[in-house]
Write a structure and sequence with these properties.
- Helix content is 15%, strand content 37%.
- It has 887 residues and is an alpha+beta fold.
- It has a six-stranded antiparallel beta sheet with strand order 1-2-3-4-6-5, with helices on one face. Strands 26, 27, 28, 29 and 30 form a five-stranded antiparallel beta sheet that branches. Strands 51, 52, 53, 54 and 55 form a five-stranded antiparallel beta sheet that branches.
- Helix 4 runs antiparallel to helix 6 (205-220), helix 4 (108-127) packs antiparallel against helix 9 (274-297) and helix 9 packs antiparallel against helix 10.
Length: 887
C-alpha cells in the first residue's frame, strides 16, 4: 500500500517515500506530537495479519528498543492505525554504505573507522542478546559527521516466511517465526553466513561472518559473493573458495588476519566475539596514526617527492611486524595528549566526569533543557548519548568491565547498562559520597556523613565496612578499589578540638567492620585516584602523581606534576574532586564554574528581577512577611552556611557561624522570629537546631538521633516541624516533631518508598509531599495529623510542592522543570484538585532531590528560583589527558 505526501498514520504525517523492499515500504514522516522527523516502515500486509509473526515482532521490538548506542539507529515504537502497522524509527540522514561503495573501494583511513563503528554496534547488540542476521551495506548509514549507524537490527529475523506463496522471490530469503530453527533460511543471500545458507541454527558468529563480508567489500570495492541468482549466491556462500589475494596488497597483515578469522566457514574456528575485532581495529588505527605522525614529522617535501615509496615500504613493514605482536599491546613510546570534550548542546551544567576502566568512554552528568541525566561519550566519537531512566543522577562510577554505570538518584543507588535498558535499584542510600565496583561484584559506597558501606552488584541490604571513630571522625567518603579488589582508598575527614584534618586512607575488606585502626596514605583535602601504578592527588592547584606499589601498599618513587594548573577543578564538596582516571592511565578532569543566580519570575516565566550576585547557593526560603530570604551558601572551602538576605534594605547577613560544620536547609517559624536548620557539628549525622532569626543568642539543639535529618516546614500554628529522615530499609521518610510536651518525634509517612519535601497546608490540616511509589516522583496530599485519604496531585511526575498562602493552589516542578499550578479545594475531611496546568519552563540550575530549589510568594504571583542566568558561560568542558604515565 503506497502513501502519498500528506497522508496521515496516527500522529505521523507522510513527507516522502524513502524506499521499499522485502520489509515493506519506508517513508520519511513528521511526528506532529513531538515535532521531529522519523522513518516509518510500513509492515507488509501478510506480516501484519499474521498473529504469530506480529506477536514475535512486538517482543523483538521491545528488546531492540532497549538498545541505546550511538552507532545503532533507534527504534521509537510500533504504530497501528486503521489496520496498518508501522515501525517508527530514527531518521538517519546521509547515504548508505552501499551508496558509497558504488563509487569503489574505500581507502584504509576511511574504511577502518567505519568498520570500527559497525563492530561497536554489533558488540552492543550482542551484549543484549540481539543478533542482526541481515548486516549489509544497505543497512549501514554514513552520517554527515562521519559516523556509521547500523539500521534494521534484528528486523530481517522476523519478516518473511519462505514457505508462504506470497514471498517475493526478488528479495533474499529471511527468517520467520522460528528464528534459530534448523531448516529455515534467513538473511540477505550475499551476506549471510554458511550456517544461515544451510538453514542451520545461528548465533552471534553469523553476524561476524557478515561483518567480514562487508569489510571485504569496503577494502576491495567488490562483492565477495555475487551469483547470477539467489540460488547461485547461496551455493557460493557454502562452497566457493575465497581468494584473499584480492585484498589490496597494501593492507596490513593484521587486517588480512582479521578478515580470515571472520570469514572462516568453520564456525568453531571463526572469530568468536565481535569485540575482539573492534579491539584489533582500534589497535590498527592507533598504530597507523602513530606511525603516520612519526613518518610525517621526520620527512620533508623534497624527500617525499623523490622517495614516497620508501615511506610506504617502511610503514608496510612496520604493520607486518606489529601483526606478529599481540593486538592489545600499545606503542612503547607515546606523546602525552590533551584535548577537551564539550558538554552537550544547551547543557546548563555538566558534572562528575568519570572515565571507564578500559579508558574508552567518558561518563558524566549533564542538565540539558532542564533534564538531568547520565551521558556517555566514546572518546573516539564526536557525540555523547544520554541514558534513559537516569533522571537526577549523581556521582556515577563504572563496573570493572566498563559495561555498567552505577549512580545515585532520589535516595537510591542504581545501576544501568550503557547498551540500553532500564536502571536497576540496588539499595537505598542517604546522600551522595561516591562508590566503587570490584571484579568480584562487590560495590562500596558512601552516602551521608558516616562509614563506607558494601552491597552486592546484584543488589541487596548494605552492610558496614568501616567504622567512624566518633567524635573526632565525621565521614568516610569516595571509596576506590585497588587492583586486588580487597584493598581500597577512601577520604577521611576529622576534627580534633578546633583543628580539621583530612587524609586519604587505605582500607581493607578483610579488616573487621568495627576497626578504628587507620593506615594513612597521605594528607589531602580531596580524594586521590589510583591509576596505571600511580596515585594522583592535588597539591596547591597542581595535579601530582606518585608511583605506588598496590601489592605492597607503599610508595615506590617520587611525585611529579601531571597538570600544572588545575584551576577550580576540585570544588571541595566533602573531599570530592572533578577528577577520574582509568586503569590504563587515561585521565579526565574538569574546571567547574559555579554560577547560580537567585532570580524572580512571574507566572508567565518572565524574569522580573535578580537577588544578589551569582554564587554557589541553594534552598531559598521566604519568610512569612516576605521581607527576608534564607539561603544555604557553599564557601570556596567547601563548607555550607546559612545566610539571610534582606529584601527591603538589599543587605545580607551570615546566620550560622559554626565554621567547623555544614549548616543548611532552613525553615522559618510562622512568625519569622526563629529558624530550624540542619547541622553536622556534632557529627557524623545532621541534627536539627533552632535559632532566633535576628541572630541573637546561641543555637539550640532541637533533635539529635542516629540518622540525618532535613527540616522541610513549620506549621502555621507553630506547634509542629516537619522533617525528613532516611532509614536503611525504608529510604526517605516524613516525620513530625511536636514542639509541645515531650517533643517526641512521630513518623507521618514511613513506607518502602521515598517520601520527602513535605509542606503543611496554610491551615495545617493537610500536607503535600513527594513520593516515588509509582516508579517516579509524584506529588501527593494527605490529611494531618490523621490521614483521611491520599490524593495524587501531579499526573506526569512532580517534585518540590509549594502552597499558595490561601491554600487554593499548589505548585510543583515536573521532571523536565516546568512550573505547574493546580487548583486545590479542601475541607476538614475532603480534598479536591483541578487539572495541572503549565505556567512556564523554569531555568532551575541545581535540581537537588532532597532540598527545595525554589519558593513562591504568598499570592502565588512570583517565584524565587535558583537559576542559571542567560549570560552564564554554560557548562564547563572536560579535559582528557592520555599517556601521562611513564612507561
Amino acid at each position: 500500500m503506497a502513501f502519498a505526501a500528506g497522508a496521515r498514520l496516527g500522529p505521523y504525517e507522510i513527507l516522502s517515500a524513502l524506499g521499499a523492499g522485502g520489509m515493506g515500504e519506508v517513508y520519511q514522516a513528521r511526528d506532529r506530537k513531538l515535532g521531529r522527523d522519523v522513518a516509518l516502515k510500513i509492515l507488509p500486509e501478510p506480516f501484519a495479519a499474521d498473529p504469530d509473526r506480529l506477536a514475535r515482532f512486538q517482543r523483538e521490538a521491545q528488546v531492540l528498543a532497549s538498545l541505546n548506542h550511538p552507532n545503532i539507529a533507534a527504534i521509537y515504537g510500533l504504530e497501528e492505525s486503521d489496520g496498518i502497522r508501522a515501525l517508527v524509527m530514527e531518521l538517519v540522514e546521509g547515504p548508505t554504505l552501499a551508496d558509497r561503495l558504488a563509487r569503489g573501494a574505500l581507502p584504509f583511513d576511511e574504511a577502518m573507522p567505519i568498520a570500527r563503528s559497525i563492530a561497536e554496534a554489533l558488540e552492543a547488540a550482542h551484549e543484549r542478546g540481539v543478533i542482526h542476521r541481515d548486516l549489509k551495506p544497505a543497512n549501514i548509514k554514513l552520517t554527515s559527521q562521519g559516523q556509521a549507524k547500523v539500521l534494521d537490527f534484528g528486523l530481517a529475523a522476523i519478516v518473511q516466511d519462505p514457505s508462504r506463496p506470497d514471498v517475493n522471490a526478488t528479495h533474499s530469503p529471511t527468517l520467520t517465526l522460528d528464528a534459530t530453527r534448523a531448516g529455515v533460511i534467513l538473511g540477505t543471500a550475499a551476506y549471510m553466513s554458511p550456517e544461515q545458507a544451510a538453514g542451520k541454527p545461528v548465533d552471534k558468529r553469523a553476524d561476524i561472518w557478515s561483518f567480514g563480508v562487508v569489510l571485504w567489500e569496503m577494502l576491495t570495492g567488490k562483492k565477495l559473493f555475487d551469483g547470477e541468482t539467489v540460488a547461485h549466491t547461496l551455493a557460493d556462500v557454502l562452497r566457493a573458495p575465497i581468494d584473499f589475494n584480492q585484498v589490496p596488497r597494501s593492507a596490513p597483515l593484521a587486517v588480512r588476519t582479521l578478515l580470515q578469522r571472520c570469514l572462516d566457514r568453520d564456525v568453531k574456528r571463526r572469530l568468536r566475539d565481535i569485540g575482539e575485532a573492534r579491539v584489533q581495529i582500534e589497535n590498527y588505527l592507533t598504530n597507523f596514526r602513530s606511525a603516520s605522525t612519526s613518518a610525517a614529522s621526520a620527512s620533508s617535501p623534497s624527500w617525499l617527492a623523490g622517495g614516497g615509496w620508501i615511506a610506504a615500504a617502511v610503514l608496510l613493514a612496520a604493520f607486518g611486524a606489529l601483526s606478529l605482536v599481540h593486538f592489545r599491546e600499545t606503542p612503547t613510546t607515546a606523546l602525552t595528549t590533551r584535548f577537551q570534550i564539550l558538554p552537550p548542546d544547551r547543557a546548563t551544567s555538566a558534572d562528575y566526569p568519570t572515565i571507564s576502566p578500559d579508558g574508552r568512554r567518558l561518563a558524566f552528568v549533564a542538565t540539558v533543557d532542564g533534564k538531568t541525566l547520565l551521558w556517555v561519550r566514546p572518546l573516539d566519537s564526536l557525540a555523547a548519548q544520554s541514558l534513559a531512566g537516569t533522571e537526577g543522577a549523581a556521582s556515577p562510577f563504572w563496573s570493572p568491565d566498563s559495561r555498567f554505570l552505577a549512580f545515585f538518584s532520589a535516595g537510591r543507588l542504581k545501576k544501568v547498562d550503557i547498551a540500553g535498558g532500564p536502571p536497576q535499584t540496588l539499595c537505598t542510600v542517604e546522600g551522595v559520597r561516591g562508590g566503587t565496583w570490584s571484579r568480584d561484584g562487590t560495590i562500596l559506597f558512601s552516602g551521608a556523613p558516616g562509614p563506607i558501606r558494601r552491597v552486592a552488584a546484584a543488589g541487596g541490604v548494605p552492610t558496614t565496612v568501616t567504622k567512624v571513630a566518633s567524635p573526632t571522625e565525621l565521614s568516610h567518603n569516595w571509596p576506590q578499589f585497588l587492583p586486588d579488589g580487597r584493598h581500597f582508598l577512601y577520604w577521611l575527614f576529622e576534627r580534633e578540638a578546633d583543628r580539621e584534618r583530612a587524609a586519604v586512607i587505605i582500607g581493607s575488606l578483610d579488616d573487621p567492620p568495627n576497626s578504628t585502626q587507620r593506615r594513612r596514605l597521605l594528607a589531602s583535602d580531596f580524594m586521590a585516584e589510583y591509576s596505571a601504578g600511580h596515585v594522583l592527588f592535588e597539591r596547591e592547584g597542581v595535579l601530582m602523581a606518585q608511583p605506588f606499589d598496590a601489592g605492597q601498599l607503599q610508595w615506590r618513587g617520587e611525585p611529579f606534576p601531571v597538570v600544572q594548573e588545575l584551576g577550580p577543578a576540585v570544588t571541595g564538596r566533602n573531599g570530592w574532586s572533578a577528577l577520574s582516571a582509568s586503569s590504563d592511565g587515561t585521565l579526565a578532569y574538569q574546571s567547574i564554574r559555579a554560577r547560580r543566580q537567585l532570580a524572580w519570575f512571574d507566572r508567565a516565566g518572565k524574569e522580573v528581577g535578580r537577588l544578589g550576585q551569582p554564587e554557589d547557593q541553594f534552598a531559598p526560603r521566604l519568610s512569612a512577611d516576605q521581607q527576608r530570604v534564607a539561603v544555604s551558601r557553599r564557601s570556596a572551602e567547601g563548607k555550607t552556611d546559612i545566610w539571610l538576605l534582606d529584601l527591603v534594605r538589599d543587605a545580607r547577613m551570615r546566620f550560622t557561624t559554626f565554621q567547623a560544620a555544614n549548616n543548611a536547609n532552613p525553615a522559618w517559624s510562622p512568625d519569622g522570629g526563629r529558624m530550624v536548620f540542619m547541622s553536622n557539628r556534632e557529627g557524623p549525622f545532621f541534627d536539627l537546631y533552632l535559632k532566633a532569626s535576628s541572630g541573637a543568642g546561641g543555637d539550640e539543639l532541637l533533635l539529635k538521633s542516629s540518622d540525618s535529618k532535613l527540616p522541610t516546614d513549620w506549621s502555621s500554628d507553630g506547634r509542629f516541624i516537619l522533617y525528613q529522615a532516611q532509614h536503611p530499609k525504608t529510604g526517605w521518610d516524613i516525620w513530625v516533631l511536636p514542639l509541645e510536651g515531650d517533643r517526641k518525634p512521630v513518623p507521618v509517612l514511613q513506607t518502602e518508598f521515598n517520601e520527602l519535601l513535605a509542606q503543611f497546608s496554610p491551615d495545617a490540616r493537610w500536607i503535600a509531599y513527594q513520593s516515588d511509589e509509582s516508579g517516579q516522583a509524584e506529588i501527593y496530599v494527605q490529611g494531618f495529623p490523621k490521614s483521611s485519604g491520599k490524593f495524587q496531585v501531579s499526573t506526569s511526575g512532580g517534585s518540590f510542592p509549594r502552597w499558595r498562602r490561601d491554600g487554593k493552589e499548589l505548585f510543583y516542578l515536573t521532571p523536565d522543570r516546568k512550573m505547574m499550578a493546580v487548583e486545590a479545594k479542601a475541607t476538614a475531611t475532603t480534598f479536591e484538585t483541578g487539572r495541572p496546568r503549565e505556567l512556564f519552563q523554569a531555568r532551575v540550575a541545581l535540581f537537588l532531590s532532597i532540598a527545595p530549589t525554589y519558593d513562591v510568594t504568598a499570592d502565588g504571583q512570583r517565584f524565587l528560583i535558583q537559576t542559571m542566568p542567560d549570560d552564564a558561560e554554560g557548562a564547563s568542558p572536560i579535559t582528557v589527558v592520555m599517556n601521562w604515565a611513564p612507561k
